[in-house]
Amino acid sequence: APAAATDQLFMKDGKPMAFYDGVVGGRSVGVPGTVRALALAHQRYGKLPWAALFEPAITLAEQGFVISPRLAALLAKDPYLAKDPDARAYFYQADGSPKPAGTRLTNPALAKVLRTLASQGPDAFYRGPLAEAMVA
Description:
Shape: flat
Order of helices and strands: EEHHHEHHEHHH
Distance between the termini: 16 Å
Radius of gyration: 18 Å
């Protein structure tokens, strides 16, 4: 977990947060060693070049995917996801309603991060502009 995490991380107004208030968003995501672990596994067992591993995800992030009817229905029913500003901006319209089935979602920012990791390796996740942006 981040060094700045304290026993107050999941507290709100002196009381434990409701489960979904703590789970939705980046507050409960604390696995900073994953990129390094994947790189070590690749170094030991990998057959493809490191950069090649990122190509399908980069393509998907750049070209996007179409919201399926099932995803649209789930977004319409989910009472928590829209509370996260980043998820709201990605999956919901300005009026708060979910983007409809058939909408293409792309993620150029993710594609940029993946390109950085592909070209610079796992150290880019822990040092330099990408790491600094995550901390900020």
